[in-house]
Amino acid sequence: MMQDLDSLHGIILEAYEALMLLGGTDLDALAKQPFAAPTGHVPI
After folding, report:
1. Taking a C-beta distance cutoff of 8 angstroms, is the pair 30, 23 a contact?
2. Cβ neighbours of residue 27 under 8 Å, at least 6 residues apart?
3. Potential cystine with 20: which of 5, 10, 24, 25 (Cβ 3.0-4.6 Å)?
4. CA 1, CA 4: separation in Å to the nearest integer?
5. Residue 35: its pLDDT value, please?
6. Which pLDDT band holds residue 15 (cuts at 50, 70, 90)?
7. 3/10 Cα distance (integer angstroms)
8. Mean pLDDT of 25-33
């Protein structure tokens, strides 16, 4: 059962990455960039 879920997860992730790539967002390239959390306070 876990193997089936893992396989399904992989298929869905690949499809999502392909759709995002069609829209112009390369998730693999974004994942390689370091993430800097915002440090400034935005007034409400």
Report:
1. no
2. 17, 20, 21
3. 25
4. 5
5. 87
6. very high
7. 11
8. 93
**Residue 14 near residue 28, CB atoms below 8 Å:** no
The conformation of residue 40, written as its DSSP 8-state character, comes to S
Mean pLDDT of the chain: 92
pTM of the model: 0.66
Whole-number Å distance between alpha carbons of 21 and 18? 5
- 27 in Cβ contact with 15 (< 8 Å): no
Task: Output the pLDDT for position 37.
Answer: 86
Q: Which residues of 7-27 are buried (b: 16+ CB within 10 A; e: fewer)?
A: eeeeeeeeeeeeeeeeeeeee
Compute the distance between CA of residue 44 and CA of residue 4 in angstroms, rounded to an integer.
46
